[in-house]
Write a structure and sequence with these properties.
Layout: E1 2-4, H1 6-13, H2 17-25, E2 31-34, H3 35-47, H4 49-63, E3 66-69, H5 73-88, H6 95-106, E4 110-112, H7 116-119, E5 127-128
Helix pairs in contact: 1-4, 3-4, 5-6
């Protein structure tokens, strides 16, 4: 089971071959999106309305195959613990990324992202980069 980071949805819109193959190989119900990711995408659409008109139908296609996980108390608490750990090690990451990582950890999901440099700092977080899949 996978939690898709914002960059993966962008890769789907851009039709990255490896990302498309992986997404199309999964059963409906195997992919999730954090509500914070939806906010990041909406921000991009608002800032680039011409791109949004082209991307929105593609994004809606992907949304039909995913389930959304809202940010709740468990995710907020987990994010605080992740933030404390990263701060103590001098390895801070973006606040939205903290929330996305916490969502993946709380729900025992593998985070799919190309941002492995930041997410790789988080203890116990499983992650995959579908951009680098063989043949991609």
């Amino acid at each position: 089971m996978y939690l898709l980071d914002t960059c993966v949805i962008s890769d789907f819109v851009r039709r990255y071959p490896a990302t498309l193959r992986k997404i199309h190989s999964l059963d409906i119900g195997a992919m999730y999106v954090a509500s914070i990711t939806l906010s990041e995408l909406e921000f991009g659409f608002v800032n680039h309305p011409l791109n949004a008109s082209k991307a929105m139908p593609i994004v809606m296609e992907l949304y039909a195959q995913t389930q959304t996980i809202d940010l709740g108390i468990q995710e907020a608490v987990a994010a605080a613990h992740i933030r404390n750990d990263l701060k103590s090690r001098g390895l801070m990451i973006g606040k939205y990324d903290l929330l996305i990582a916490a969502t993946a950890l709380v729900h025992d999901l593998t985070l799919v992202t190309s941002n492995v440099a930041e997410f790789g700092r988080i203890k116990g977080l499983r992650h995959e980069d579908w951009r680098v899949l063989e043949g991609g």
